[in-house]
Request: fold
Amino acid sequence: MTQLTWLIPLLPLIGFLINGLMNKRMPKQLVGIVAAGSVFISFVLSVIIFFEVKNGDGQAITITCYEWFSAGNLHIDFSFLVDRLSAIFLLVITGVGFLIHLYSIGYMHDDEDYARYFAYLNLFVFFMLLLVLGSNYLVMFAGWEGVGLCSYLLIGFWFKNNSYNSAAKKAFIMNRIGDLGFLLGLFLIFQSFGSLDYSTVFSVASTWQTGDPTIMAITILLFIGAMGKSAQIPLYTWLPDAMAGPTPVSALIHAATMVTAGIYMIIRSNVLYMLSPVSSEFVAIIGLCTALFAATIGLAQTDIKKVLAYSTVSQLGYMFVALGVGAYTAGLFHVVTHAFFKALLFLCAGSVIHAMGGEQDIRKMGGLKKHLPITHFTFLIGTLAISGVPPFAGFFSKDEILAHTWAHSMPMFIILSITSVLTAVYMFRIYWLTFHGNFRGSAHQLGHLHESPPSMTIPLICLAVLSTLGGFIGMPSVFHAPHLLNGFMIPVYSHFEVIQEPAVTHRFEYALIGVSIITLIIIFIATRNYYVSKGKVPGEDASFGPLTTVLYNKYWVDELYDNLITKPLQWVSKNILRNIEIHLIDRAVNLFGGSVNFASNTLRLAQTGNMGFYVFVMVAGVLALLIFKLII
Amino acid sequence: MNNLLNTIPVNDYILLSAILFTIGVLGVLFRRNAIIIFMCIELMLNAVNLLLVAFSTLHNQPDGQIFVFFIMAVAAAEVAVGLAILVMVYRNFTSVDINVFNKLKW
Reply:
């Protein structure tokens, strides 16, 4: 069955071709069936392959489709690698992807570019599957670039709005900066190991010394790629702006799958990162800073999707901390649970926005609980899961990361715990403001409020179930249940011993669980008291206090980048245009043309029309040649 | 044939040919009557023909003489066309002075 792995990415590609080529010539129902159906079949295949891999001996299976190209001693096969890591990603991508396709059928129903939307979405799934299935870095890079392209296309899906286009361009350019690092990393890998195949690279690398500067350079460069794709400081600013795209896109690309590509890449390259403690530490620090930084920004945002976007950035930082401290499985675990609850939260937000007729400002919402019961309930589950309330999914993955961080370094643990508290605060803030209290929108919106159609609520319910149960695949040892994920992932770390079980005592685990539960209860009551009982709704932008203003304006990072990079760049370009282009290049080109013109104008006068003159010149020429010949 | 060259050395042929050619060139250069210029061109052609025949005999190879036939044929055709043009020119300008035909210039 694993020999049929190539079908998994192929099906969404076929879906893309059908929807893309037929476009508006196909009835809407059929478009949805083709798009969601192709991903669903991929999902079924992924499940089959997952169980085969699970029951197998854990050996990675390589399926070579054909030789892509070869130049010199560089041979690149277009081949897939099926192992336990890619099997998990396959499940998440096709599973969550299918639910989001289903949701989109309802969400995008009134859009005139229905088919184009689904074509892009299928193309995205194809590239994402390519990214996680590739058996060498170049196939991964192809997928890596492809998902960036689809992200660009989908952020700018409503291309008639200029600011959406700018957001799309911003995402693409920021990603390109990261991709350059990634590409340089690939060059360096090829130069050092003579191959881009995972198996060759890792087996050669594992014989190298720990702390080798070349490996450090490679890992840092690859991580720069991850910074762009997974929205880490300093390349994170594109992700909040990417919320311009349709909400299911935010859920699929900018929460569940594409942004976790960086995490996948680092887990895949765990051998390299294990060999370079310095870059691992760097990864952890960047992740930590991003986690805290984005969480504080999330506290003051008033756009429901922006809060979730900063929350995503923050959670991605969490995962990088896990990878940085060497807890690869914990990072993967959080990728999986985060895919469930963040996709759920985004889809709920989409449902709310749908009901509110496009309104995204939480200051205009409130009291939606009774109008949108299913959305409310699933959103609550998502909130509990991301805040880390037991027994929801986020609790297990977060606690595992915290425990690993505790074992690694104390200050990191403290900062990460603060982030975790902040996460709960901003999530409960939007929960209370959106679903409780009095409705603050217009009367027209109030009359329009309705629960979403089943095609939207069914994915919500599925994801809510997953967010509730997803954590049980990785129970900490205090519960005396097997940590299924740890056991599953052992074959992936064949070259080195990777710590899977956090090196902490059971007493610490109990304390961690106890403290987090108490903190969460306090946050729950405090935020309820503040936002619902006292009815403190954030006022107009101008009425913010100094701290809120700073956070609301995202520390002015965008303005900083604008002044520090964009404006000087534009200034340089303008000056090049004004001085070098106009005065130097233009003049040189004009001089050339002018001199030719002048010369021909002068020579033209030789054509006198007098035949005697022509003959004379001819004879004189012949004579001159003759004399010339005689002299030499 | 050879005895012809025995009586008159090949140098004389070359000299005669050169003189004829020079007369032709000078005629083309200095005369203004188009018909005279035409004749001078013919003179140059025939100077070359003479040379070809002389050398063909000297080397005892007939191809030079074949060449001469070609040149004569082409020259005849050329004269036919050239004279026709001249007739037309005369009809338009009532003159065959080449200094009159200077309309084709810059």
In short: Chain A has 25 helices and two strands. Residues 231 and 239 of chain A are 6 Å apart (CA to CA). The radius of gyration of chain A is 30 Å.
